[in-house]
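Office hours follow-up: a student asked to see two folded examples consecutively, so here they are.
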Amino acid sequence: MTLSFYVHIPYCIKRCGYCDFNTYTPTELQDGATLEIVSNDYIDAVLKELDAAPTDLVPTIFFGGGTPSLLPADDLGRVITAISKRNGLSDDCEITLEANPDSVTKERLERYLAVGFNRISFGMQSAKPHVLAVLDRTHNPDNVKRAVDMARAAGFKSISVDLIYGTPGESLDDWQETVAAALDLDIDHISAYALIVETGTKLAAQIKRGELTMPDDDLMADMYLMVDQLCEAKGFSWYELSNWAKPGHECRHNIAYWENKNWWGLGPGAHSHVDGKRFWNVKHPTLYKEKLHIGQTPILDSETLTSEQIARESIMLGIRMRDGLQISLLEPHQLEILATYRENGYIELADDRVLLTPVGRLIADRIVREITF
């Protein structure tokens, strides 16, 4: 067995208007700590949580957030070193850092490589300043190319950018320019996610007040098909609904999620999955640290998956992937439902597998609902 690790870094300089992730700015923290003060103390707590995890070999580690690149490389490196000494890393272990383009320098990037990172993912989101303004993103779009070029020069072998489409006020031409700008970068991987407006965010309040209007479903569909076509034309193949990569640069950490492998989430609010059991930690970093420093578990709750849930999730996750679903895993009534989708061009059959076509990917959730409930 293997065990991947997700390491949550729950700190940001500023909260983006669309974000409902478990992140905190220094002013939001009850203890009023600055990032400089909090870093060392926080990593100490993460290392205490690590003691509870299984000791299986580690094929991937992913530092997400928040903004992991705000923390000094040596602090993050303490986690990598501890996992390596305790569990052991596979020879080709993929170790990813999520980064804000504005938060990296040549020296920091070189140091991140020195402590063990070999893959970096920049939050680009858009190349259009007016779109970034609606999203409340703090970075200058020109800094993305600068950051990517510095990362490549420093020696990162795999570089990704994250994009968001469907922002209020974003046109199809805006989106085309963003994707084209991303593909002109020296990168190996693109993630493109439809904007989801979460209740309680600044963006949701602006939409509720009528200050902003969400794009319609047809435009969202056109945006998805456009990024797929542009990526494929530049040698980036889709391997999961929202992800495209050059050969050999797929994100193996995320693939572990989609294949229901074992992973342990370190940090407040982090989720884990080990041998059919899911569990998740308390959300606030102050409470998380307090519990670990007095010897208590940070786990808030858990659930053991039934065989039916495991089968349903295998279908839900598997159909998202380029390799699709094995026909032998499906029941006759499920195959009957899929036959209609095949006739209408949403799926195709190849090598005893069910594969989504590009237009089928647009309604993947609907197909999953119909064959699993």
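And the second, which I mentioned at the end of office hours:
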Amino acid sequence: MSNADTLRQLHQDHLSNYNNQEQQAIELMGLLNKLYNNQDVQVTLFGETLDSTSVGQILALHQKVALRDNNAKPIDIADTLAMVKVIAESKDIQATRIDVGQLIANDTDVQAALQSINSAGAVNGATDVVLYGFGRIGRILTRLLLSQASSAKGLQLKAIVVRPAAAGDLAKRISLLERDSIHGRFLGGISIDDDNNGMIINGRFVQVIYANDPSTIDYTAYGIDDALVIDNTGIWKDEAGLGKHLQSTGVKKVLLTAPAGGDIKNVVYGVNNDTVGDDTIVSAASCTTNAITPTLNVLNDEYGIENGHVETIHSFTNDQNLVDNYHKSDRRGRSAVMNMVITSTGAAKAVGKALPELSGKLTGNAIRVPTPNVSLAILNLNLKTAPESADALNEFLRKIANSSTWQSQIAYTDSTEAVSTDFVGTTHVGIIDAQATILTGNQAIVYVWYDNEVGYSTQVLRLATQMAGISYAQIPA
């Protein structure tokens, strides 16, 4: 056989193999949709949601996780399909999240794992959600909520509230949702319902309400009741201001997507969300606080943190000026697209609210830089117990990132080529850059990337799910 014939055969073999994988992915998508719609069962692969709408994304995710850990067992699409078939045969399983990656990698008996969960009577209802404000975070939350397969359970986006505007406002807002300079086009259908002043997004109607004062809105007039309001405006940050939402008709709870003051709890999901209880007003803290607190939590548990400094290299935000102009805050009046701007950050101090054992131990500053998204936190820490080496520290962080406890929030990269744009759209709240880790005695410097829009919004929705009383059994626990 000639070299050309060998290459043709190689090409044909690869194509045949990929076609076979595509067919398996199509079959998998059908099973995932049935599990989600009929039993409220969500299947993940090492914490990553298996997208039930895209063959390419399912196969790309399997390729990605195969490379995530050189010591891990690769996960083939055939392995996933076989396990999901077993899960689909178990009709009694309800309201459960199942990580097939962890089950396959650890050679877990899936039948035994399913039998260990008593979820037959578990049913999650539907919770109406209102987004108050439709800026960067509001639109990202909309994308995340309505990109999921439709379901009668869970968080149901029913309305968006914005300030009164001129004619044509609705079309402009839909255009901003559909087209995004950072995250690209929305992969779904969006249209205007002029008659009812709303949007139809992936077949679901979302009311647009114009108001200046939250307390004046009667949500029940729009068929909305016992709603969770997610306030993305940042206008009100205390109980008196945010309490206006509770004075309206049809609202039960309020979640703020910014740090709050007073007695309102600042919550980082995965760290201190167990403190929420029946609170009717809760803050999801800031993007930076969410990005660094999980990593600080695991480092403190393993080595102990004496003290440290957090420096964030943060993408510019909408509160800065494009060109030099007056600004009430120091330095932020200077052009955001032309300068690195040193500014303050409350993230280091806010860590102490979510992780009281670190209260008063961290200082912090921020440098705003001319990039539109993805930021980098540098954790300069004095540890009580020194790791044996930088490699040992990285190995600990790698295992944490691959653990069932933290895999959805903390990610890990040891690529020598990784740059900020590689992390646009990541749902992990923080990605540890192993190549940048420095260790000198007890002093550790750890670099954490984060998409300050999508990563943070994912944390917001995790907290919103808890506040709505929606819960899932976990396999593995």
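Two things to take away from it. The mean pLDDT is 92. DSSP finds twelve helices and 21 strands in the chain.
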